[in-house]
Design brief:
heterodimer; A: about 270 residues; Rossmann fold; 9 helices; globular; B: about 280 residues; mainly alpha; MetI-like fold; 2 domains
Chain lengths: ~270, ~280
């Protein structure tokens, strides 16, 4: 069975204004795969190219070398089978919550009434049934994230790409959202590639955690299978001894990279 | 009265006080005007005789009489108001549409933008009011030349606003729309256009104001109808009272126009956050 997402020997070098000769290599020799119903998290120190690899998987960015395969097929252009949840606000400010959620269906040509019905259904599922007519500026950060989630999931994508989606939220809302995502994912398990710098979040949510080295030219330096039983509650699972064991093991690898990352930033500053 | 809270009562009283102060100020200004221009009331201070002040500044009572005659007795100003309003609306409509189209086109086509940039800069720098006589020759003394002048004023404001607005569309919103499956045309219709039109609306007050200025100035420089024409006629016979009356009417007209635009703006811009305001839900 072909993996849902397969990145093979990907490297991304960006042209730099400062040093015209050499560009900045964000990631190099990166290979990873995500199975069809697998929840994979990628953790790494700040600035290690996590977003870059997600953009490559989404088709928003063409890699300098390597190839991307989606369900066995080489990827050209945008990844049409993936939904993307951005780190910052991505809702269209001139549209209400309902109109935002049905946007993807509208672009696909779905009948207006049906699209509205599906949008309302998903808004109800993420707990925004009473806020369907609100505009983004009238909603809190957590509500906007939930609307974005509904907007992505209403399309029923086979792959869900998430770029630190909850890093801008306070801890309480973040835990609520994490549980929300898990319960929504539980019913129809899609391939999920989840980027985060929060190790707790990664372990609590995923089947597998991949650690990225510090930039530049970051690549995976560790992979851990998370054998915690499902369904999980994000807050409670952190209290279990198995969680602590996994956390210790992964942090041992990650800590060095985080320190390397800081050294890097101090040097360039 | 008992159903009002104490805060509401205090607020209403505060509003009344404010209005009284404003009315008092107006009364004092008009009173001053009257006293300074009424012949025989006070000795002439700046002029040779006591009729000259009225000649230069007009007299409030006569101005009021003129306005009354325009609106009630002769009721002949409505035709002129209609003409000025038509010119304003046409200048705004055509100018905004062209500004919207031009701004969108150049923002989305970098090559055209680079080729045309110096010319647009030059045309914007030129004081376009000076084109009024040329427009008079080209379009005659009818509303055409007034609309043309208003157009040149409105176009650039809207154009630069739209250009900026499209260039500054959030790349995240754009990427999100693309990931949701929007093709080029859908991006234009559902992302670029709403973003651009919001910039048009944010410059609505300025654009409508400029359209009005273009219409009135165009009339003043040569016309046969409109409030600017009335002022022009009065000036020719040194009828200062009528000129002042015309100015008052134009000011009131501009305020009404501004009020209409504000109402429209509130309706169209309800998705925009107003800084520091709590939302009344």
């Amino acid at each position: 069975m072909a993996a849902a997402v397969e990145l093979r020997d990907i490297s991304c070098t960006f042209a730099s204004n400062a040093a015209a000769a050499q560009g900045y290599t964000a990631i190099a020799d990166l290979s990873l795969s995500v199975g069809e119903s697998e929840f994979v998290s990628v953790v790494g120190p700040t600035g290690c190219g996590k977003s870059t690899l997600l953009n490559v998987a989404a088709g928003l960015l063409q890699p300098s070398t390597g190839e991307v395969r989606i369900f066995g097929q080489a990827l050209h252009g945008l990844n049409r089978r993936a939904g993307y949840m951005f780190q910052t606000d991505s809702l269209m400010p001139w549209r209400s919550a309902r109109d935002n959620v049905l946007a993807g269906l509208q672009f696909r040509g779905v009948d207006a009434l049906q699209a509205a019905a599906q949008a309302d259904d998903w808004l109800r599922r993420v707990g925004l049934a009473d806020f369907a007519d609100r505009y983004p500026h009238q909603m809190s950060g957590g509500m906007r994230k939930r609307a974005s989630l509904a907007q992505t999931l209403v399309m029923d994508p086979d792959i869900i790409l998430m770029d630190e989606p909850f890093s801008a939220l306070d801890i309480q809302t973040r835990q609520l959202m994490e549980n929300e995502v898990l319960s929504l994912w539980q019913s129809r398990k899609k391939a999920v590639l989840f980027i985060t710098h929060d190790l707790d979040e990664a372990i609590a949510m995923s089947d597998r955690v991949i650690i990225l080295s510090a930039g530049p030219a970051s690549h995976p330096i560790g992979e851990f299978a998370i054998d915690l039983p499902r369904p999980r509650d994000v807050a409670e699972i952190k209290m279990t001894p198995e969680f602590a064991r996994l956390h210790r093991a992964i942090w041992a690898v990650l800590r060095d990279e985080v320190l390397k990352g800081y050294q890097q930033q101090l040097r360039t500053a | 009265m008992s159903s009002q809270t104490l805060t509401q009562q205090r607020h209403a009283f505060g509003q009344l006080r404010l209005r009284l102060w404003q009315a008092l100020l107006l009364f004092m200004v008009v009173g001053f005007w009257y006293v300074m221009t009424e012949p025989g009331l006070i000795p002439p201070m700046m002029f040779q005789n006591d009729r000259q002040a009225a000649f230069f500044f007009g007299q409030p009572w006569q101005v009021a009489q003129r306005i009354w005659a325009w609106f009630v007795i002769d009721a002949d100003i409505y035709r002129h108001l209609r003409v000025t309003l038509t010119e304003t609306v046409l200048a705004f409509g055509i100018g905004a549409a062209a500004g919207l189209g031009g701004g969108l086109w150049l923002a989305l086509s970098p090559l055209s933008s680079r080729v045309l940039e110096p010319y647009i800069k030059a045309m914007n720098a030129m004081p376009r009011i000076i084109l009024a006589p040329i427009f008079g020759v080209w379009f005659g003394l009818g509303i055409g030349s007034k609309v043309a002048l208003g157009f040149t004023l409105v176009f650039f404001v809207v154009f630069f606003n739209v250009y900026q607005g499209v260039k500054e569309v959030s790349p995240v919103v754009l990427a999100n729309a693309r990931m949701l499956g929007a093709n080029g045309q859908q991006l234009l219709r559902h992302v670029y256009l709403p973003s651009a039109t919001s910039w048009v609306f944010s410059s609505l007050h300025t654009s409508v104001g400029l359209a009005f200025v273009g219409a009135v100035v165009g009339e003043y420089l040569g016309s046969s109808q409109g409030v600017g024409y009335l002022i022009l006629q009065a000036e020719g016979s040194f009828d200062i009272n009528t000129v002042m009356a015309g100015i008052v009417v134009l000011t009131l007209f501009a305020l009404v126009l501004d009020g209409v635009v504000s109402r429209l703006e509130r309706r169209l811009m309800k998705w925009q956050p107003k800084a520091g305001e709590t939302e009344k839900l």
